[in-house]
Amino acid sequence: MGIDCKASLNLRTRVSLRQGWNQIRIVGVGLALFIFSQAAYPQEVSSWTPQLETTEGRLRLVQSVFDRHPQLPSANLQFRINPLTILKPIPALLQKLEANAQSLEIAPSVVSGVSFVTTQIRYDLEKLNAVREYLKTHASRLNLNSFKEFDGDLESLKSAFTGDTKSFEKQVYSLLLLAPFIYNAQGELLKEGTAELIRQQIFASIEAVSASELSNYYGDFLPNHFSVKVSEAAAKPGFGRVTNLLKRVAIEFSEALVAPAVKPVDSNSSDSVEVRKVSIEKMSSSITSYRAMAAGDCAGLSIPYYGLIKDVEVFWIRKDFKIKSAPVGYVLVAKIFVGNKFLPYVITVNGSTLMESDIRAVLYLLQDSYQTSEFVVPDFIKNEYVVNYPEVRKGLSFSREISVEISMPPGWELVESYLDSRGSQYKNYYAARTLKNAKLVNLNEKPFYFVNKMQSPSFLPYKEVSSVLAAPLLERGILAGQATLRDHTYAATDQKTEMSNEEKQAVYTSLGVTEEQAYVSRYLTMASSQSPIDKNKFESLKTHLGFKLNDLNKLDVVTRAYSYAKLREEAPEIADEKTWNDLAISINHYLEIAAVGVEDALESSVKLKFIEAKSKLPGHLIGDAFWVRWPSLLRQRDSKVVEAAMKALIGKGDLPDEVWQAIEEKCKGNQAGSNDFTKNIFAIKQFNAHSEKTWKFIGDLIHSAARAYIYKNFGASKAIVEIYLRAAPQEIGDEFLRRLNNKLVMNRKVPRTGNMSDSCYFANFIFRLELNRRIERHQQAEAEVKSAPEFPKQANSCYLLF
To answer: Residue 100's pLDDT is what?
Structure first.
C-alpha cells in the first residue's frame, strides 16, 4: 500500500507548509477545487424511506446506520441511548408536525470539505499532569471492594464507614471526583470486571484523559447531568451532604484545577503551524436522533427530535474528507427570519475534539451551503450550555455582534412540548424562550484562508436493508444487544426504563438470535484499550456469534492493537503465524492513517494512545513507517510521552540514526533524571548495541548521578543508582565501588538525609556485587565467600535481594 512513502510525504508536506506560512499569510491562498474520484464514493443514488412504524422497520434503519458507522454503539457510553426505542416516537411526532415535518427519505448526499492552515492549540502540560495526578491520588484512596451502580457504591461506603462521618465524606468526595471515569449519566458502570480490573481501567483512563474531555466531564457532565443522580441520592436518609460535597468538587477541583489546565496557552513558534481538514455532510432527518452518539453529548437523551422539523438541518462533522471515517461531531442549524431575511441560526456545534479553527471552517462551509455570510448564533451569556465546549463558544463568538430577538421555526414548540411531557431529567437548553435571545454576526469580520476545497460526487449515505436476517450473525448479535438496552430516553422515575420481555423477544425473533448471543455481543461494544478482547471473551464470542480473529477489525484501531497483543499472548494457538502477521500489518496500516500528524497532535493523550498501540505490534512486521514520527515524539516536552516512546522501542531491533540522535539529545536535558527513562535506556541496550558513542554518553551521565548519590548524601535518586549498578556492573570502576562500599558498609553510618532502608538496600547490593567480582577474579568461589567482609550489623534485618 506504500505506507512508508505516504508517511514520509506527509511529513515533508507539513515541513514545507510551515516554511511557507509567512508567504501564505501575505498573499492569501489560491482556490483549488478538488472533486474526488467517482471510485472513492458509493455510486448508488436512489432514495428510500425507512418504515419506522414497526420493530422490523426500525431494526432495518439501525442496521443500515451501524453498517456505515460501526463505531457508534460504543462511541458515547456516558450518555448511552437505545438506538431502536429512540426511533419509536418519530411516526407520531411527524403526524403532529404535519406540514412542518421533514420527510424521512434518505436521499443522495455530498461531502463538502476544506483544508486550512492554522496555529496549533497547546495546553500547559504541567497543569494537565497535575490534574491527572490529583485524580489518581483519589483513585488510590477510594475504598471499594466491588463496584456497583452509583447508588450501590454510596451504600457500600456508608456501610464501610459507619460512625466515621469524616472518613465517609472523604470517600464520597473521591467517588464524586472520579464519577466521569466510572459511571454514565444514569449512574451505571462504564466498565465491567472485578474491582481490581475496574480500578486499573480507571487509572488508565485518567492517564489518557485529554483537555477537551476534562472540560466536558467537569464543565458539563458532572454539574449538568450527573448532578441529577447526586440530588436523588441526597434525598435518602444518611446522604444529605452529598450535594454539598459535589459543590466542593466544583470549587476545589473543577474551578481551581481543571479550568486553568484546559485553557489553551499562546503558541507563536514556527513549528506550531499545521494544516487541518474539516468536512460536513447533511444528515437525513430519520437519523438526526443519533447525532450525539458521535459528539459525546446528551442530545440523544434530552433533545433528540428537533431534526424532524422542516426548517432544521443537521450536519455530521469530520476531520478529513473520507465518508467512511467516524464523525467527530455535528452542527445543528435552524432557518429563521430576521427582519425580512431568511438566515441560518447555528444553534449548536458539538464535538469534544473540535477547536476554534475547526468551528470557523464549519461556518465557512455552511456559508457556501446557505449562500450568505450573515449568521445568527446563540447569546452565550444568557444560554451558555446550548454549547458544551469553550473552544466551540470561541469559534461562534465575534467582536461585532448585534443582539436580536427571534422566533423559532414552526413546529419547534410542538417538539418542545412533547419532550417536556416525557419527564426527562435533563433541562432543555433548546427551549424557544431561551433561544430567542441571539446575536447576528457576519463571517466577513474574520476572513477564512484555506488551502483547498473539495466536494464529493452525490452518493447514497445509507443503504436500504431488505432483510435484517441477511446480515452476518455477529452483526445481528451486536444489533440485538444495542436494541435491548435499558431505555433512558424516558428518564423520570415514574416512567418505564426497561423493555418488556415481550418487546425484547420480538427483537430477538426479528434478528434470529438468542438472549445469550445479544448479551455476549457487549464484549465488543464495551471493548477498549483498557478492556481489550482476551482469550475468555474471544472463546465466548466464537461459540455464540462465530467470531473470528479477523473480526477484530470491527473494533477501533487502538482497541484492535491491544486485543491483538492480549490474544497473541494468551492464545497463540487460535491462528497460524501468517494470520497473526497479516492482522498486525493491517492494524499498523490503519494506525498510520489515523496517526498522520500525530507529532502535531493537540494533546499528549493522543500521542500516548498512538505510541502504546504501536508498541503492541511486533517491530519486524511494521517496517520503517514505525520510525517516521519517533524522533519528534522523543523531543516532546511532556515526560509521559517521551517515556512511552522510549518504552515502545524496547525489543524493536535496530534503530535508525535519527532515533538515536533524538535519544542522545534528550539525555542532555533533564529527562535522564527520570527513573523510567533510565530503565528504558538499559532495556533498549539489551536489544541494540548500535551507537557506542550514545551508550558511552548515557553511561557517563548515569554514572554521574550515581556519584552524586555517594558524594552528596543521597542527593540523587536511589533507583537510578540501582539501575546503573544492575545494568552496567562491568563499567563500574574499582574506586567508585570502594567509595560506595566504604560509605554504606565500612563506616556503618546512615547519612543524615538518607534512611536505614536505603543504607541496608545498597549495603546488601554492593556486598553481593563485590563478592561476585572476587569470585570471577580469583576463580575460587568457596575461598572468596569465606574471606568476604562481614555484613554490617545494622543491615542484619534487611531483606536480602539475592
So the answer is: 94
